[in-house]
């Protein structure tokens, strides 16, 4: 099966050896997004909500570059350094996803790249 890398300038450039997403068949595997502003590659200013919004904005940009949208996400994984932020993530998700919501896991982690407190990746079915 072929693999096609997906790239958009509307989301942060990869900061390592990975693609923003990879399309294979009708599935798009979106790499983890952290709250980086694409134009500056700086962490977005503001509180946790602002960082969560930036993460979902970045995922949305990559999904759209692949020819899809966030409502086509079938699996979402959220990584949090503080699980007390779980409720805020749920609130922010309602602005990006319609029901039925994707399958999801929320994972508490010790640390994330660049010292951020939230990251999310996804699998999208076109």
Q: From the 3D coordinates, which CATH architecture would you assign?
A: 2-Layer Sandwich
How many domains comprise the coordinates? 1
Biggest sheet, in brief? 6 strands, mixed
Give the overall silhouette. Answer: globular
Count of strand segments = 6
Please trace the helix and strand order, writing H or E for each element: EEEHEHEE
What is the CATH superfamily label? Answer: RutC-like
**Rg over C-alpha atoms, rounded to the nearest angstrom:** 14 Å
Query: Can you count the helices?
Result: 2
The strand order across the widest sheet is 1-2-3-6-4-5
Distance between the termini: 16 Å
CATH fold type: 60s Ribosomal Protein L30, Chain: A
Given helix and strand content, the structural type is alpha+beta
What percent strand? 25-35%
Oligomer: single chain
**Average predicted local confidence, pLDDT:** 97
CATH top level label: Alpha Beta
Brief synopsis:
The protein is an alpha+beta fold. It contains 2 helices and 6 strands; from the N terminus they run βββαβαββ.
Ordered list of secondary-structure elements with their pairings:
Elements: E1 4-6, E2 21-24, E3 27-33, H1 48-65, E4 73-80, H2 86-93, E5 103-108, E6 118-125
Parallel strand pairs: 4-5
Antiparallel strand pairs: 1-2, 2-3, 3-6, 4-6
Helix pairs in contact: 1-2
């Amino acid at each position: 099966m072929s693999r096609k890398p997906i790239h958009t300038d509307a989301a942060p450039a990869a900061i390592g050896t990975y693609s923003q997403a990879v399309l294979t068949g009708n599935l798009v595997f979106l790499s983890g997004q952290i709250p980086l502003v694409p134009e500056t590659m700086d962490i977005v200013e503001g509180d946790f909500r602002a960082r969560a919004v930036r993460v979902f904005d970045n995922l949305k940009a990559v999904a759209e570059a692949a020819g899809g949208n966030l409502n086509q996400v079938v699996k979402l994984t959220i990584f949090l350094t503080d699980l007390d932020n779980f409720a805020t993530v749920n609130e922010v998700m309602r602005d990006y996803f319609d029901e039925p919501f994707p399958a999801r896991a929320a994972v508490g982690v010790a640390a994330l790249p660049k010292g951020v407190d939230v990251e999310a990746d996804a699998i999208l079915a076109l």
